[in-house]
Design a protein that fits this description.
Layout: H1 3-14, E1 18-21, E2 34-37, E3 48-55, E4 58-59, E5 64-69, E6 72-82, E7 87-97, E8 102-109, E9 116-123
Parallel strand pairs: 1-5, 2-8
Antiparallel strand pairs: 2-5, 3-4, 3-6, 6-7, 8-9
Length: 126
């Protein structure tokens, strides 16, 4: 593949890279919002990938893998991809999140890492 095409493709994917602000108004401090992070959609080395698709019925763009939301109850749509068998399952999660906290998705898998049986949202400690 032409190197120029590769660079253009990467630029297109990363044009929305980063965190989506899913509340109205100016950006708030990290103490005022909850940050929820999923895996990048292009994660070739990982046997299991948890992709945040949408929050409160708002879809994320291709390069966005994290969101900042106001504290409260939110609905998250997450895809769980198993690389070995190319199995993808979709999970709807409703959770209460708190300001100043960082969260990640965690998957429970079936025997032999063949399927995602459940996806939960957990607090990340720094």
């Amino acid at each position: 593949m032409n190197a120029r095409l590769v660079v253009l493709a990467l630029a297109a994917v990363c044009s929305g890279c980063g965190t989506a602000q899913l509340y109205d108004g100016p950006r708030r401090t990290s103490d005022e919002v909850a940050r929820i992070t999923g895996d990048m959609r292009i994660n070739a080395r990982s046997p299991l990938t948890l992709i945040l698709r949408e929050v409160d019925n708002t879809p994320l763009s291709l390069g966005q893998n994290a969101v900042e939301v106001l504290p409260g109850k939110h609905r998250f749509l997450v895809d769980c991809r198993i690389a070995e068998n190319e199995n993808t399952s979709r999970h709807s999660i409703e959770e209460e999140v708190s300001a100043g906290r960082h969260y990640r998705f965690v998957a429970e898998t079936g025997p032999g890492l063949r399927e995602c049986t459940q996806v939960t949202l957990q607090t990340v400690d720094f």
